[in-house]
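dumping this here before i forget
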Amino acid sequence: MSVLRTTLTAVAGLTFGLQTAATAGGGVTISSYGQRALLIQGGGQSVLINPFRAVGCAAGLAEPRVNANVILASSELADEGAQGVASGRFLVSPGSYRIGGLELEGFSSPHDRLEGRRFGNATIWRWQQGGLSIAHVGATAGPITGADRVLLGNPDVLIIGVGGGSKIYEGPEAASLVKQLNPKRVIPVQYVNGDAPAGCDQGGVQPFLDAMAGTTVQNVGRSISLPGNLGDSTVVTVMQ
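structure:
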């Protein structure tokens, strides 16, 4: 009996240690691979968001062929949730997951403005890493319900698609959601720099920035480190 009790105590201690490593403060480092793919490292874990193949609005970009503990995809469309590009535990379906001390929640939202009748549903993600609560609303054009807002809470870091078109928020739509959620740091994704590739209906980031007038905007490179304790005001971080 004492051996069993000792074993259970050791397992419980190991589980607690894993959870503490993932959720403890210390912050995260975020690296951009262009257009929609971000690698978030911190708390002993790495999370890759929306790996893509170089097609559609991602045409001409280098595919993010990296290793990550967890891969979170908005959908299985090739330009925002391609399997086989990166390595790691691939998640695209809504649900509750616990992986390596990370607790991740995914829930559905219409991918288009037609209640999902054209592109189906996308998955919105929420988790904690490096002492920060992170929400990924990267690929949806449908309205966020009151229940969705409760699930999202007031994230420290909000990653949100802003480029417009048939399956991504237009800039003013994204800005409206930002103001509702009141995050401390906003990272816009899913927009194009320069001319859009053939067949891509997305625009640039400027309409979103215009709609966020009065908010501090930081233009950074391809990587940024965020501390585990962010300031109280909202800052928009534009990554290359």
